[in-house]
Amino acid sequence: MHGEYKVPGGKLVVVDLDVVDGAIARFHLSGDFFLEPDSALEAIDSAVNGLSAESDAATIAAAVKGALPKDAVLLGFSPEAVAVAIRRSLAKATSWRDYDWELVHSKAVPPVMQMALDEVLATAVGEGHRQPTLRIWEWDEPAVVIGSFQSVKNEVDPVNAEKYGFDVVRRISGGGAMFMEAGSVITYSIYAPADLVQGMSFADSYAFLDEWVIIALKSLGIDAFYQPLNDITSPHGKIGGAAQKRLGSGAVLHHVTMSYDMDGQKMTEVLRIGREKISDKGIASAAKRVDPLRSQTGLTRAEIIDQMKATFTNLYGATPGDITPQEYAAAEKLVAEKFSTEAWLYRVP
After folding, report:
1. Listed residue (206, 167, 174, 168) closest to 190, CA to CA
2. pLDDT under 50: residue ranges of the chain
3. Contact 1, 84 (CB under 8 A)
4. What is the model's pLDDT at position 282?
5. What tens digit of pLDDT does each residue of 163-176 get?
6. What is the pTM of this model?
7. Of 105, 103, 37, 109, which Cα lies nearest the Cα of 75?
8. Distance (Å, rounded) from C-alpha 61 to C-alpha 297?
9. Which residues touch 33 (CB under 8 Å, ≥6 apart)?
10. To which H or E segment does residue 20 belong?
11. Edge to edge, what strands does the sheet with 143-146 contain?
12. Regarding beta strands 167-170 and 319-321, do their DSSP bridges make them parallel or antiparallel, or are they unpaired?
């Protein structure tokens, strides 16, 4: 069995192994990482051989750590990365280039329709009716998008939301509330087969699925990096955040909203941002925590999106596509039956 894992921002980890009587055998680690001393490679191989093929990533990583010499230096990878590569090999995981990707950058639709399209398109990929897809959203109406498990009354000031014309909608993934205005954010969704993240924890898959956008931002001169669990950030402040949902249809939905520009005063009036939420950030307000892309690049929103599209296409070979009339119709049905209903919006008291 063969497995590979490119560490986001790091090096490639490659594993080859067999399974004999339920245990890992003939295991060999390789890659373009740096490891000192040389004997540490043999120590890692020995530690993995004999482990149960059912071992989880934490067990494998612990075995690798325990076998390393005290003076070992690992650059560009980690015991956890070895564990991910092993789990992916055992699960027969796929890679980005195994798929024919479609890149969709379509018309603006109402916020509630954006929520429905995410479910429709992710489900279609899981059921094999659509190729794996990157979709870049367009906005022409303001909205607050809350996570699947958030309470509207705890997250949004209804008086100020109405004052500024903000709709409140709920998405199917977890995470926090997002403040959206036309022209002020860059949002994208990835709809991929679950095999692409086989063997990965949620934490590992976040950085893995967003590595391409880190590359795109770096190419624009932004010192962007991933901050676990789900933040895209830079030395100047947070740029955006990700959320994810793994569907029973066999697909993973992963979406990101990045701040291009921001009206910090309006945001703090519309959102109820409590002290507890920012207590570990060493800052006085959520507005100071965010540093929009406009201030870091001086580029237009369209220029940044063009670079993102070019980067994704160059890395993974995507071709332009669009949302079909049938998919729009399915989304409109979901809006009526689910996403526009009070039962969905207020599903959490």
Report:
1. 206
2. 275-288
3. no
4. 34
5. 999 999 999 999 99
6. 0.86
7. 37
8. 39
9. 7, 10, 11, 12, 13, 74, 75, 76, 77
10. strand 12-20
11. 167-170, 143-146, 178-180
12. unpaired
